């Protein structure tokens, strides 16, 4: 009788037991750190000295320290330039690679390769070789009589260097766009061309509206990644010159792992999270106006 | 339903944002030993005996250090010799480059996973000793570790709560080094005082605007400024836990650094950063003689020399140790313990770990193998062995002798605190970065520097 009851409980909750391993992992490695970091953000938690003070001191410092505010501003600037540039570039290349060209598979692979390389040391060395004052870019410019550019002489130049590094790694967004472009029916283009629509009109009036869900998806993922960017500035510019490429992730890293000030690092991470969250919410709310889901009443 | 879907999607996106990791998976820098034992070591192995200082039971030790290739090779060889002398002790090395090393080791110390024997930076004693518990009290093992070979003053610098947390390996200080070939090419003398330093700036500029007699990063600027102030005012930088200089005096130091830039003695920080080199010794302009001088620790200069001598574009350049550039009535500069050996507080074999330290610092065989890979030894016996056998890098010996005879000021243990010297958000980096770009003037820089240091000293 008892074993029958247990079997029934097991049968009724089979789904729950299937997801239990994931659930345990999620609670232990996501929910717990998430909640504890919120608590730590209101303390002066130091890995070596523990907690001796609680309160708003970390948040007060974040909102009053000009260098921390600058890091948030630089992160914001980085994301604002990086995300649209990357999406436009990925869409542009995907659009070209969607044509029936000779050797198109080779080009698709070639354009995807930089994404696989990621933010590695090798790429940092490559980027430095390209952008240093005696580097490849200046050598090419020199052929045309253009004076050497010190990319690190200004904040804008240095930020451009690390933005271009991520834009160059557009492969994953490109592949997703390519899949979406393949899903657009040829009939629509055919009908449009009969009506006299040119390639640009077709692109903006047919292609873009039909792939807006994918643009939306790429926008959200790229936004999240851009705000959390670390490798590029850490490896290539080391946050310089004069803090011009010091993204907030570098401050979080230094506070957490170099100074062991987990309280401050948690507070900075939470502010970053809220910023990403805000942008995500804005994107979701605004999608009513620009994202077209063809399976839901024409929307 | 649509709303639920949208909110569910938003929830998933949030979870995704939380889950995304900014950092790529790190690779362990530790490596297991590659055997490069000397023939003498294997010969010694056959005669090895287990000394009475160990129980004879098999013991496994872990030994961690950072450094360059030559230090790795010498230390591995020394380990082989140690294992040959004490066959019951097996030592597993764990080593890597400096970049990221402190982050990894500090977390190891905190998590109780530190190696039994650690090469540590002097400021780690204060930062990571956790009130004297993270490292073993080495006075407890003075029967196997000969502490009489070290001056009481140097040992006192390694104590916390009256416990000896580490033994000093070597003392170091900053010295001027020059590319003699570049100076000859420009046709000016190697600087010995401020006037000749400024004259060199003008001469280098006249020869080639891309050439500079000296190159200094942010932290180098801080050390040179302190050297200048000590030379001029004759006071320690920090005294009694406070900055020992007035804001006007520090402003004078900041003006000095700015003057070095304006007189073409040093490139601006933007120029150095534009070279996009990992460090100055890897900078093509240093390697090819465009930057002709450095102000560097005597224990670190060999890599600059190797880089210069390895130049493909400009072979045959000569790297020399300079005289101290006179900047006032006093001999500026400080010396510090460059590094030390410590034993983990939770080591299961602290006695054997102390024996390994003794072997590396005081034992003839160990000292001969390691030589000056970690600078000129603090150990009297170690130094005697090197001198008797005419061992060690002559350049390191020359530079160390000069700095030890010249620089007499004290260094505060928090001078190298990560709140101050971390890149890019340490106080030194921020202040000198802003000063170089003109974002702040020398008065503001002085005020910001004193404020930042005071906060660190009080923390």
TrEMBL record, chain A:
Q: Which SUPFAM superfamilies match?
A: MalF N-terminal region-like, MetI-like
Q: Which residues form the ABC transmembrane type-1 domain?
A: 72-283
Q: Which BP terms does GO give this entry?
A: transmembrane transport
Which topology term describes how it sits in the membrane?
Multi-pass membrane protein
Q: Alphabetically list the UniProt keywords.
A: Cell membrane, Membrane, Transmembrane, Transmembrane helix, Transport
Q: Where are the transmembrane segments?
A: 12-32, 78-97, 109-131, 151-181, 269-286
Provide the family line. Answer: Belongs to the binding-protein-dependent transport system permease family.
Q: What is this protein called?
A: ABC transporter permease
UniProtKB/TrEMBL annotation, chain B:
Keyword set for this entry?
A: Signal
Cited Gene3D superfamilies: Periplasmic binding protein-like II (3.40.190.10)
Organism in which the protein naturally occurs? Lacrimispora celerecrescens
Enumerate the InterPro entries for this protein.
Answer: Bact_solute-bd_prot1 (IPR050490), SBP (IPR006059)
Q: Source organism lineage? A: Bacteria, Bacillati, Bacillota, Clostridia, Lachnospirales
The protein's name: ABC transporter substrate-binding protein
Q: Which residues form the signal peptide?
A: 1-24
């Amino acid at each position: 009788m008892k074993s029958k009851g247990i079997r029934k409980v097991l049968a009724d909750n089979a789904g729950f037991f299937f997801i239990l391993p994931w659930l345990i992992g999620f609670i232990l490695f996501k929910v717990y750190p998430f909640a504890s970091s919120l608590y730590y953000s209101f303390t002066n938690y130091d890995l070596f000295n523990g907690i001796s003070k609680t309160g708003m001191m970390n948040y007060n410092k974040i909102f009053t320290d000009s260098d921390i505010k600058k890091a948030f501003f630089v992160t914001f600037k980085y994301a604002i330039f990086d995300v649209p540039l990357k999406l436009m570039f990925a869409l542009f290349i995907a659009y070209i690679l969607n044509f029936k060209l000779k050797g198109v598979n080779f080009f698709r692979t070639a354009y995807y390769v930089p994404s696989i390389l990621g933010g590695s040391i090798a790429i940092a060395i490559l980027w430095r070789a390209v952008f240093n004052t005696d580097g490849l870019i200046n050598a090419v410019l020199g052929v045309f009589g253009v004076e050497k550019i010190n990319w690190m002489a200004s904040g804008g130049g240095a930020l451009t260097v690390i933005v271009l590094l991520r834009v160059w790694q557009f492969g994953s967004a490109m592949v997703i766009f390519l899949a979406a472009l393949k899903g657009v029916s040829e009939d629509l283009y055919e009908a449009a061309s009969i009506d006299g629509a040119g390639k640009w009109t077709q692109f903006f009036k047919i292609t873009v509206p039909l792939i807006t869900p994918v643009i939306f998806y790429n926008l959200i993922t790229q936004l999240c990644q851009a705000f959390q960017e670390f490798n590029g500035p850490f490896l290539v510019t080391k946050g310089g010159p004069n803090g011009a490429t010091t993204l907030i992730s570098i401050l979080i890293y230094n506070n957490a792992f170099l100074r062991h000030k987990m309280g401050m690092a948690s507070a900075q991470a939470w502010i970053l999270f809220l910023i990403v969250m805000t942008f995500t919410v804005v994107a979701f709310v605004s999608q009513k106006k620009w994202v077209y889901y063809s399976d839901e009443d024409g929307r | 339903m649509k709303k639920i879907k949208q909110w569910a999607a938003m929830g998933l996106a949030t979870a995704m944002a939380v889950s995304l990791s900014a950092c790529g998976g790190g690779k362990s820098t530790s490596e297991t030993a590659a055997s490069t034992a000397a023939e003498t070591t294997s010969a010694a192995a056959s005669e090895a005996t287990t000394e009475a200082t160990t129980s004879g039971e098999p013991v496994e030790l872990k030994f961690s250090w950072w450094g360059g290739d030559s230090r790795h090779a010498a230390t591995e060889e020394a380990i082989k010799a140690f294992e040959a002398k004490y066959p019951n002790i097996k030592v597993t090395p764990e080593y890597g480059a400096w970049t990221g090393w402190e982050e990894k080791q500090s977390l190891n110390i905190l998590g109780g996973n530190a190696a039994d024997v650690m090469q540590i930076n002097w400021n780690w004693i204060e930062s990571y000793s956790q009130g004297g518990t993270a490292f073993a009290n080495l006075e407890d093992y003075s029967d196997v570790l000969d502490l009489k070979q070290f001056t009481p003053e140097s040992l006192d610098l390694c104590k916390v709560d009256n416990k000896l947390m580490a033994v000093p390996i070597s003392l170091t200080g900053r010295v001027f080094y020059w590319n003699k070939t570049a100076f000859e090419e420009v046709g000016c003398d190697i600087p010995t005082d401020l006037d000749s330093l400024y004259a060199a700036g003008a001469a280098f500029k006249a020869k080639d605007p891309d050439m500079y007699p000296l190159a200094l990063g942010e932290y180098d600027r801080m050390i040179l400024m302190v050297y200048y102030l000590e030379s001029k005012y004759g006071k320690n930088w920090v005294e009694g836990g406070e900055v020992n200089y007035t804001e006007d005096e520090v402003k004078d130091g900041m003006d000095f650094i700015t003057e070095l830039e304006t007189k073409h003695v040093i490139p601006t920080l933007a120029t150095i950063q534009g070279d996009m080199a990992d460090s100055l010794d890897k900078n093509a302009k240093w390697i090819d003689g465009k930057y002709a001088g450095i102000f560097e620790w005597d224990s670190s200069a060999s890599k600059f020399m190797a880089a210069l001598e390895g130049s493909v574009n400009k072979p045959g350049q000569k790297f020399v140790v300079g005289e101290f550039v006179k900047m006032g009535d006093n001999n500026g500069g400080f010396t510090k313990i460059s590094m030390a050996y410590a034993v983990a507080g939770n080591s299961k074999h602290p006695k054997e770990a102390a024996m390994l330290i003794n072997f590396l610092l005081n034992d003839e065989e160990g000292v001969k193998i390691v030589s000056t890979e970690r600078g000129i030894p603090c150990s009297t016996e170690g130094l005697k062995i090197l001198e008797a056998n005419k061992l060690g890098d002559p350049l390191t010996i020359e530079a160390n002798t000069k700095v030890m005879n010249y620089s007499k000021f004290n260094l505060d243990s928090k001078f190298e605190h990560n709140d101050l010297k971390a890149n890019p958000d340490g106080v030194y980096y921020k202040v000198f970065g802003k000063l170089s770009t003109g974002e702040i003037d020398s008065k503001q820089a002085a005020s910001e520097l004193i404020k930042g240091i005071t906060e660190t000293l009080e923390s």
